[in-house]
Amino acid sequence: MIQSSLDRFAVISQERKTVPSDHLVYLTPSPLQPAVSRFDSYQLVLVLSDINVAWTDRDWHLRGQDIVYLDPRLVLLLVKRGIARAMEVR
User: Fold this and answer.
1) Residue 39 included in any domain
2) Residue 17 counted as domain residue
3) CA torsion, points 43, 21, 70, 13, in degrees to nearest 10?
4) Does the pTM exceed 0.85?
5) Which of 55, 80, 81, 84 could disulfide-pair with 27, CB 3.0 to 4.6 Å?
């Protein structure tokens, strides 16, 4: 399932300063951590400004697809620190 979804995603450029809210993204291991840079460690994430709305309205459907939620500020922090790379829907 993740493999088929991956085809619809593209890497966000390093120069990009923001990750749009309400977008599905992959948070992948950073190239700085090659030991964990395996495909099966990719995590599909829905970035939402209102986490409470996400959990109450959408979690029951998306959780079954191994999709989790992160606040946009947390996503930006992970990307900035090199812990993860973000990929967005084209």
Assistant:
1) yes
2) no
3) 50
4) no
5) 84
Three-state SS at 40: helix
pLDDT at 81: 72
Per the listing, tokens 């998306």 go with: 62
- Burial of residue 88, with CB atoms counted within 10 A of its CB: 0-12 exposed, 13-18 middle, 19 or more buried: middle
CB of 45 closer than 8 Å to CB of 68: yes
Which tens digits make up the pLDDT trace of 43-73?
566 665 555 544 444 444 444 455 556 667 7
Helix (H, G, I), strand (E, B) or coil at 22: coil
Sign of CA dihedral 26, 45, 22, 8: positive
User: Structurally, how many domains does the chain consist of?
Assistant: 1
